[in-house]
């Protein structure tokens, strides 16, 4: 998946522990752990909003787009064909 979650990095920079953030934004520590590990297929905007408010960051600090090489090649082929 080309979207990578960098929540663990932002939390470490802010020196925020998982249990503190989970409690502050109203989700379980298990769900926060899944978010931190990137083992989720979606993220609710209200959850993202709560995380960003608590950590004083922007969504772009937490989410990063890293396209796959195969995806890059197919996108390039489409652009070349057009």
UniProtKB/TrEMBL annotation:
SUPFAM superfamilies: lambda repressor-like DNA-binding domains. It comes from the Bacteria. One of its GO terms (molecular function) is DNA binding. Residues 21-62 form the HTH cro/C1-type domain. It holds the Pfam family HTH_26. PANTHER family: DNA-BINDING PROTEIN, DNA-BINDING PROTEIN-RELATED. This is Transcriptional regulator.
